[in-house]
């Protein structure tokens, strides 16, 4: 079964990596795809986010890293995806993601693309890309100790964040 794990991953967090690793265990092929949304101004380019994901997940044989723009279901159809993987941290995430799942199901009716939810590991459930960006901004703009980020992102992402905010 080919599963697609899409996201902006800006930046990639340990929570994203956890969901991808666990998703790879149930997929024959897991495509982790960075959304390259030209309407938004990301902190990191799609190329950088792909590099962070390759660094973290490249050792897993059934994982491939890619990027896409446009409608998710169109990309999923091109890749012959069976299911879309979404990580959820809270009841609010479930409610929000359920709406997207219904919408994607309607758009892919002929392809029958399902959505699979994996709950965040408890130790990572507080992490989001926006929290990481906020914490990094305050840590690096104030020259504070950056050990907190060590529990949220990989060393390569942490290094990149230090460059952005210093």
Secondary structure elements and pairings:
Blueprint: E1 2-7, H1 14-26, E2 29-35, H2 46-57, E3 63-68, H3 72-78, E4 83-88, H4 91-107, E5 114-119, H5 129-141, H6 147-150, H7 155-165
Descriptive tags:
166 residues; alpha/beta; Rossmann fold; 5-stranded parallel β-sheet; 7 helices; 46% helix
Provide a compact summary of the structure.
This protein has 166 residues and is of the alpha/beta class.
Which sequence of strands runs across the widest sheet? 3-2-1-4-5
Largest sheet: 5 strands, parallel
Radius of gyration, rounded?
16 Å
Relative helix content: 40-55%
Mean pLDDT equals: 89
Number of domains: 1
- Tally of helical segments: 7
Low-confidence stretches: none
Query: What's the helix-strand series?
Result: EHEHEHEHEHHH
Task: Tell me the β content.
Answer: 15-25%
Q: Which CATH-level-2 architecture?
A: 3-Layer(aba) Sandwich
Report what the structure shows.
This protein has helices at about 15-25, 45-55, 70-80, 90-105, 130-140, 145-150, 155-165; strands at about 1-5, 30-35, 65-70, 85-90, 115-120. With about 170 residues, the protein is of the alpha/beta class. It has one domain: HUPs (Rossmann fold, 3-Layer(aba) Sandwich), CATH 3.40.50.620. It has a 5-stranded parallel sheet with strand order 3-2-1-4-5, with helices on both faces. Helix 5 (about 130-140) packs across helix 7 (about 155-165). The longest helix is centred in the middle third of the chain and has 17 residues, at about 90-105. The termini are far apart. The mean pLDDT is about 90.
């Amino acid at each position: 079964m080919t599963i697609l794990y899409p996201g902006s991953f800006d930046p990639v967090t340990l929570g994203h990596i956890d969901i991808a690793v666990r998703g790879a265990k149930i997929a024959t092929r897991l495509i982790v795809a960075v959304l390259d949304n030209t309407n938004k101004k990301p902190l990191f380019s799609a190329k950088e986010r792909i590099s962070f994901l390759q660094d973290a997940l490249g050792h897993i044989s059934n994982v491939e890293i890619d990027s896409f723009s446009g409608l998710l279901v169109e990309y999923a159809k091109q890749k012959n995806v069976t299911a879309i993987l979404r990580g959820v941290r809270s009841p609010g995430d479930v409610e929000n993601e359920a709406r997207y799942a219904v919408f994607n199901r309607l758009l892919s009716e002929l392809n029958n693309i399902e959505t699979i939810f994996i709950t965040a590991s408890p130790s990572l459930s507080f992490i989001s890309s926006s929290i990481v960006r906020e914490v990094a901004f305050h840590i690096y703009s104030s020259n504070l100790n950056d050990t907190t980020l060590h529990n949220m992102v990989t060393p390569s992402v942490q290094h990149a964040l230090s460059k952005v905010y210093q």
